[in-house]
Amino acid sequence: MVKLENFSKAKLIEIIKMCAKNWLAHDGSWFLAIEEAYGLEEAIKFDTEAWRCFTVLEAQRIMETFDISKKGGLKALAKALKYRMYAYLNEQDIILVNEKKLIFRMKQCRVQETRRRKKLNEFPCKSVGIVEFSGFARTIDPRIKTKCIACPLDKHLRDFWCAWEFTID
């Protein structure tokens, strides 16, 4: 086993970014293989089910690693969103409007930008995103409600790829 303790801070940051890129490359490769074999609609169904499971595991591990308590409200969600694998790859905004409302925007999305570069259509990720973001938020705090503001293939502003609103009573 490689001892991470032996690496410098700069090397550990490089390793984290490399692992995040590898994770996303695997996710994309898996998705494209399903899409080629069964079509986009079926690939989205499989992707949705994979995210339904993964997003909960990711949230639980983030909560454990960064000492985020369950039912910590939108402040806990804001903290947890900063540690998702995407956060090491994509530019994002997390705006805690007040105690009852948080806005998350994916300003730069490696998945969509890779698809553009490969001359593929935008990935219609809204249905997957609803499962992913609502499952993540509910794991952090079951009281949090999730609403999609915009997500491909919706029309979206040029300054973000997708945006999500999280509220709590």
Topology:
Blueprint: H1 9-38, H2 40-65, H3 73-81, E1 92-98, E2 101-106, H4 110-117, H5 126-140, E3 145-150, E4 162-167
Antiparallel strand pairs: 1-2, 2-4, 3-4
Helix pairs in contact: 1-2, 2-5
Question: What labels describe this entry?
Answer:
single chain; 169 residues; four-stranded antiparallel sheet
Kindly report the spatial arrangement of strands forming the biggest sheet. Answer: 1-2-4-3
DSSP strand content = 5-15%
Number of helical segments?
5
Structural class determined from secondary elements? alpha+beta
Order of helices and strands: HHHEEHHEE
CATH class equals Alpha Beta
CATH topology: Muramoyl-pentapeptide Carboxypeptidase, domain 2
Q: What's the domain count?
A: 1
Q: Quick one: biggest sheet?
A: 4 strands, antiparallel
Q: How many strand elements?
A: 4
* Outline type: globular
Helix amount, in percent? 40-55%
Radius of gyration: 16 Å
**Unreliable sequence segments:** none
User: What is the level-2 CATH architecture name?
Assistant: 2-Layer Sandwich
How far do the termini sit from each other? 46 Å
User: Mean pLDDT, nearest integer?
Assistant: 93
